[in-house]
Design brief:
12 helices, 3-stranded antiparallel sheet, 12% strand, alpha+beta
Length: 280
């Protein structure tokens, strides 16, 4: 038997625990330790990533779900960090009448991904003094993720994370959105405000601030639309959600020319990282 065939046979035996595969490897009681280590490592990996879900379900229910997931979805990546990618969808099939379970899992997974996601310094508010708002396009930090949420899973997650007694699960009156991003080195999240999900989607699609105000005006009126968009932008800047603003030109003396995107200065970016982080 070649080394490659031996390795593949060992992998197949770890995944299936097939006695025929074990016999081909030489069998023996000692091989069971590898099977146990394999499953224990995968359960531990899932428990590390989905800590709040494990607290919500309890050890027995979580470990049962993890064991079923391991049987259904053996790892295919070189790193265990990617192993829980499908776990949220999997637990949704196990608890179809309890949507908060899958949403708690989604928060766990997303916070983990945001922590290791792409880095970008946040834009300082004073950098916008020369922005031309007729052409400005807002670019969010690359770590920002916008997720749908239909329950109070975020409130439950926060309580579990701080050791408090969580509230009972309930569906929200209307479907909402959930924002997760990184401030410095710390993942943070909050509920999206009214219209915020739409504005973020329009900005991500490359629509300018002026165009977004026009779109909001169709439902809010012109004055209220400008106020709503400006309030959202101010909050994003204060929360470190804006990475850059693309402008066709700058405003001010001698600025009647095309302009590169407004980005944070490197020194300011490093200083911001060294100062530490705060929660949203």
């Amino acid at each position: 038997m070649s080394l490659l065939a031996l390795q593949r046979g060992f992998r197949d035996w770890l995944v299936t625990a097939d006695e025929g595969a074990a016999a081909a490897l030489g069998g023996g009681p000692g091989t069971l330790v590898y099977q146990n280590n394999y499953r224990t490592a995968l359960v531990s990996s899932l428990a590390e990533t989905f800590q709040r879900l494990a607290l919500w379900l309890g050890d027995e229910a979580f470990e049962s779900a993890a064991a079923r997931y391991i049987d259904a979805r053996p790892p295919s990546s070189w790193t265990l960090d990617a192993y829980g990618e499908d776990f949220t969808d999997f637990v949704a099939t196990l608890w179809p009448d309890d949507p908060e379970v899958a949403e708690i899992a989604l928060i766990d997974w997303t916070v983990e991904q945001v922590f290791v996601g792409p880095d970008a310094a946040a834009l300082a508010p004073e950098a916008l003094a020369v922005a031309d708002w007729e052409t400005a396009v807002i670019r969010a930090v690359p770590s920002l993720l916008v997720l749908p949420i239909a329950t109070n899973a975020d409130t439950i997650w926060r309580a579990l994370a701080t050791g408090e007694t969580p509230v009972l699960p309930e569906r929200t009156a209307r479907g909402g959105a959930f924002l997760v991003w990184r401030q410095g080195l710390e993942p943070v999240f909050r509920r999206a405000e009214e219209h915020e999900r739409d504005v973020l989607a329009w900005s991500a699609a490359g629509q300018g601030f002026a165009t977004i105000c026009e779109r909001l005006a169709t439902s809010l009126g012109e004055e209220a639309a400008v106020t709503a968009a400006g309030t959202l932008l101010g909050r994003w800047l204060s929360e470190g959600m804006v990475a850059a603003v693309d402008c066709a030109r700058l405003v001010g003396k001698g600025s009647n020319r095309s302009s590169p995107p407004l980005h944070p200065a490197p020194a300011a970016s490093e200083a911001r990282r060294n100062r530490g982080t705060r929660g949203a």
